[in-house]
Amino acid sequence: MKLSSCTAVAGTNIALVKYWGKRDPALNLPAAGSLSLTLKELGTRTTVRFGSHLGSEDRVRLNGRDPDDSTRTRIGTFLDLVRERAGITAHAEVVTENSVPTAAGLASSASGFAALAVAASRAAGLALLPTQLSALARRGSGSAARSIFGGFVEMQPGVFSDGSDAVAESISEGDGWGIRLVVAVTSEAEKAIGSTEAMERTARTSPFYASWLESIPGDLQDARAAIAERDLHRLGAVAERSAIRMHASAMAATPSILYWTPATLAAMNTVFALRDRGLAAYFTIDAGPHVKVLCEQDSVSEVNTALTATPGVIRTFTTSPGRGARILHETTA
After folding, report:
1. Listed residue (62, 34, 106) closest to 285, CA to CA
2. CB burial string 68-90: b at 16+ within 10 A, e below
3. What are phi and psi of 37, to 5 degrees?
4. Who's near 77: CB < 8 A, 6+ residues apart?
5. Hey, is 257 helix, strand or coil?
6. What is the pLDDT along the chain (333 residues), one digit of tens a residue?
7. Beta 22-24 vs 179-185: how paired, if at all?
8. What are the two backbone dihedrals, phi and then psi, of residue 168, each rounded to the nearest 5 degrees?
9. How far apart are CA 309 and CA 289, in angstroms?
10. CA dist., res. 276 & res. 13, Å (int)
11. CB within 8 Å of 184: residues ≥ 6 apart
């Protein structure tokens, strides 16, 4: 009997070794590997229900509202992948609630498509393995492949043209490490250019892009070793240089892609000042203006206080390693 409804949750993830660029945009195949931390406090809860009574189109609600046309099309295209795989034609009702600000550089699409992959596949009657879910989630968002797993996660770029080996895997050595990520929110606005468009422009026009790709294998090796050794200083150094190199390649594109604001720079300088005082604190910045700071659990209060006092920082909050995407409940037809 096919499942008709499923609710799933997934945490967003923050890349420490960055994902930036695709070898196949149609399949969302990354140009290089990446490594991330799945978060407990930020994520997405999604319910999917398939049924012939839903009419001739999918129904989608995002945070209690109808999504824009672009988002609706993106979700519909993803549901088509699930329908094709399950051999069904019924349309779906999708209800999604995000605890991540959408399109602001906090990886809302990662948790969104990871939760959708789990909920939609189960509602369609599929029972996919974690690696299969990772490959499916990647079709919606490249970073979503990592949110299928919890804690520290590495994404493999793969070599096959069909993308079957472009999947994420958990790094078990990271389990139980008392690391925290303090987020400094520096803007309430949606970012001016989406990640997909920015990646394409960077790859096509930036003179730094090839060097950026060449740096990633070494960063991945250092990050793996740092996680295995519980070495925050080494992991933090990798995260900072990966973020700066990624943004440098984007800044050098034509036209230039600049996500940083004065508050972003101020928060980065705050982190430098914390380290000058002997605190283990290191920043990373995704495709947006917000600054995320890696630190130990015992340092959270001091990091929060310093970032809160930074000019332009709107608010801060603390996140911790979280579990992978999972089913909350399901009903059968």
Report:
1. 106
2. eeebbebbeebbeebbebbebeb
3. -125, 120
4. none
5. coil
6. 455 899 999 999 999 999 999 999 999 999 999 999 999 999 999 999 998 777 789 999 999 999 999 999 999 999 999 999 999 999 999 999 998 765 455 668 999 999 999 999 999 999 999 999 999 999 999 999 999 999 999 999 999 999 999 999 999 766 668 899 999 999 888 888 988 899 999 999 999 999 999 999 999 999 999 999 999 999 999 999 999 999 999 999 999 999 999 999 999 999 999 999 999 999 999 999 999 999 999 999 999 999 999 999 999 999 999 999 999 999 876
7. unpaired
8. -95, 165
9. 17
10. 28
11. 263, 267, 290, 291, 292, 293, 307, 310, 313, 316
Q: Say how far apart CA 134 and CA 142 lie, in whole Å.
A: 10
Listing DSSP states for 285-309 in one string gives --SSS-EEEEEEGGGHHHHHHHHHT
- Rounded to an integer, what distance in angstroms lies between the CA atom of residue 243 and that of residue 282? 11
Name the β-bridge partners of 315.
Answer: 185
Domains of the chain from N-terminus onward: 3-175+322-332 (3.30.230.10), 179-319 (3.30.70.890)
Which tokens in the block code for residue 80? 């088509």
Report field, pTM of the whole predicted structure over 0.85: yes
Report the alpha-carbon angle 115-120-126, nearest 5: 120
Cα separation values, 269 from 82, 227, 238, 265, 273, Å: 45, 25, 17, 6, 6
First to last CA, the chain: 7
- Residue 117 exposed, middle or buried by CB count within 10 Å (0-12, 13-18, 19+): buried
Length of the chain: 333
